[in-house]
Amino acid sequence: MSTLQIQKKNPTGYDFISLGALVIRLDPGIVPFAYAEDLKVHVSGGEYNVAANLSQGFNQRCGIVSAMVDYPLGAKIENEVRKMGVTGFYKRYEHDGVRGPNMAQVYSDRGQGLRPPIVFYNRANEAAARLDSGSFDWDQIFSSGIRWFHSGGIFSALSPKTPNLLIKAMQSAKEKGAIISFDLNYREKLWKSIAQEGEIPQKIAQRILSSIVENVDVLIGNEEDLQMGLGLQGPQVASQGKLDPTSFYAMMETVAKRFPNIKAVANSMREVKSTNRHDWSAVLWYDGKGYQAPTCTLDIYDRVGGGDGFAAGLIYGLLQEKSPEEALRLGWAHGALLTSFPGDTTMATLSQVEALANGASARIQR
Question: Is the full-model pTM beyond 0.85?
Answer without folding.
Answer: yes
